[in-house]
Specification:
alpha+beta, Topoisomerase I, Chain A, domain 4, 4-stranded antiparallel β-sheet, two-stranded antiparallel ribbon, about 20% strand, Gyrase A, domain 2, 5 helices
């Protein structure tokens, strides 16, 4: 295979890879689970200078849906909270305290309070469920269109470059072309379906929690109704006795 054809394949592969990677990045920023990539744009104003969040905090994932963010200096707590709010106003923030093991001035084991911000992803209720699915569809179609254009442009160039190729070489070129397209199409579609499943899981989690709350509320109301009925019966019996 001639060098010019190989170079065209390499350029196409790079384009498809870039589009697919950006698609994955954009999906992660449709925040459902606690993805550290969503915190990359956060800037914190520390002593008059803007710093990346990871430079002035320690970030730990508490569970699938929340982060624990520890400022390296406690006085930066408010600045960190403001920085997160500026990029992700939808995130729920709570100031928390954790007991940690440390050493005192005499190098004796002791405990100290570590202040941190608990950052929780917003719940996927019915409204957010619909909005997220529309957002994923829009990103998917955008990525698909970009990849289609890249493929079309590459096919035009390859048609010119392969005009004098033998039938056997053309079969090899077509096989490589199909393999490359299949690789990145499957990668893109895998990201797409994975995100949709993530949305479904988070929405089902919210539905289950809502059902539990509704059931508890119903039980409370039923109990209240029984108490009222009992009180009315007792009052009636007292009236009859008198």
């Amino acid at each position: 295979m001639r060098r010019s054809i190989i170079r065209e394949f390499e350029q196409l592969s790079e384009s498809l890879s870039n589009y697919s990677t950006m698609f994955g990045y954009n999906l992660k920023n449709l925040c459902i689970k606690a993805e550290e990539v969503s915190l990359l744009p956060v800037q914190v104003l520390v002593e008059g200078e803007m710093k990346n969040l990871e430079k002035c905090t320690v970030i730990a994932r508490k569970d699938d849906y929340s982060f624990m963010i520890f400022p390296k200096f406690e006085e930066d707590m408010l600045a960190v909270a403001k920085g997160i709010m500026a990029v992700h106003p939808e995130f729920k923030q709570e100031e928390k305290i954790m007991k940690v093991d440390t050493l005192d001035e005499n190098d004796e084991p002791t405990e100290a309070d570590a202040h941190y911000i608990l950052v929780t992803m917003p719940e996927v209720d019915d409204d957010r469920y619909d909005a997220l699915k529309k957002g994923v569809e829009a990103l998917y179609e955008g990525c698909k269109n970009q990849m289609d254009v890249a493929n079309t442009n590459a096919d035009v160039k390859l048609a010119v470059l392969t005009v004098d190729e033998t039938p056997e070489n053309m079969r090899l070129i077509k096989a490589e072309r199909d393999k490359l397209n299949k690789q990145w199409t499957e990668h893109r579609d895998g990201l797409y379906h994975e995100k949709l499943q993530e949305i479904e899981d988070a929405h089902n989690k919210w539905l289950n929690q809502k059902a539990d709350l509704d059931q508890k509320q119903k039980e409370k109301e039923d109990a209240r109704g029984e108490n009222v009925t009992y009180s009315m019966r007792m009052g009636k019996h007292e009236e009859e006795a008198n």
